[in-house]
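Closing statement on the flavin-adenine dinucleotide sub-project.
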Amino acid sequence: MQSTCDLVIVGAGAAGLAAARAARAAGLNIEVVEAASRIGGRGFTDTTTFPAPFDLGCQWLHAASINPYTKAADRLGFRYRKDPFVYRIHDGTWWLNDTLVEEFGASLAATYDRVAALGEAGEDVPAARAIDPADPWGSLFRRAYTGYMAWPPEEVSTFDTSRFHFTDEDWPVEGGYGALVAAEGADIEVNLDCPVKSIDWGGSEVMVGTAKGMIFCRAVLVTVSVGVLQAERIKFFPLLPDWKLDALGHLRMGHAEKVGFWMKRNIFAGMGPHFTMLNWDSAPTAGFVCKPFDRPMATLFASGPFARDLFAQGMDAAIAEAKSLLGKVFGADVLKEIATARATGWVSDPYTLGAYSVLSPGGGEARAELARPIDDKVFFAGEAASPDGFSTAHGAYNSGLTAAALIADALK
Ligand SMILES: Cc1cc2nc3c(=O)[nH]c(=O)nc-3n(C[C@H](O)[C@H](O)[C@H](O)COP(=O)(O)OP(=O)(O)OC[C@H]3O[C@@H](n4cnc5c(N)ncnc54)[C@H](O)[C@@H]3O)c2cc1C
């Protein structure tokens, strides 16, 4: 294969698909190349393992009222649940009572406000700086924060909290957020199983080397994860400039993984959907999403270094570890009720290499620098390049739209 076009888009996740539609509407002749055998990237719903859809990646419409995927869900007939999150906390022996759970909720909100206030004041320091050493809920804040951000607060900049556009609306998608991402992008023509191996941007045109041949173009939009860029899975000729490498050096992949269990019967009778937080001294940074959409399911959500290491011994070992935690919290008898299990493994997916991006303390404007084009020829988008929606599917989508507008302007 050898071809010519205006723009090559590398990656058909949320960012690449959104950029493709916008670039096409702007009259550009595009080619979208995707390494995997499917579109959606980190938006992926497994529809075969369980009797109901299971999101391996994105699951909640964050900032739902300003999220473009909420409108897409309405248009495409995907339903979502608007109920606020219900938390339960297990201390390794039993459940904390409602008063204590409320006390934790107040402490969590106050600590988050302090993290945001530090960032707004221009203090680009570890989020952990905002934890009050006298707060008895400090260690549970660490766990919760690691759960949201996929990396511990000691190694995440306050800017990632102060700059994210929160609306306190996190709505799960019944038919799967990954399925929604794919359905929304279904009209985009994508060259699948076509990993990009090199981008030569030194000449008057850009040469994109793929597993299926060379594509000559005027510009390239790279939407792959920070993990893939850092691992140099795509070789750039000439090398990326120092300022771009510097930006990449201030970002890292956080880790979030899931192990889903479909139960033979509803083990959460009398309860609604909820999230169980684990809170004992040696507890891993993990929790269980229970009974989503009233389904007989419990999903372990692992995050941070624990999630990264969970898969070191392979999938079976990860499932065994999740089972052991399930038994500890809900009782050993529950293990007899497991019908099927499914684990993720984003950490070892060669086209992702982690869950989503995190800004290191002192990282400053690294996200904006990641988004900044090189010579009006090499453009970047993806969740990590979003100024206020990083780590999410809608942030990726919006970053794709921003990049497409820049490219249309540069190529006109
Ligand atoms: C466990 C987990 C839970 C999450 N939960 C949520 C959530 O509830 N809500 C939310 O909004 N977000 C969530 N996210 C994050 C969200 O899924 C991502 O931020 C978003 O999907 C990223 O989109 P993207 O387009 O930036 O990147 P990707 O989806 O990674 O797209 C990049 C594409 O590039 C492809 N690619 C890689 N290398 C190459 C190459 N060499 N050549 C060609 N193609 C290549 C990849 O296969 C991929 O398809 C979660 C993520 C994970 C892992």
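The mean pLDDT is 97. With this model delivered, the sub-project is considered complete and its resources will be redirected to Aim 3.
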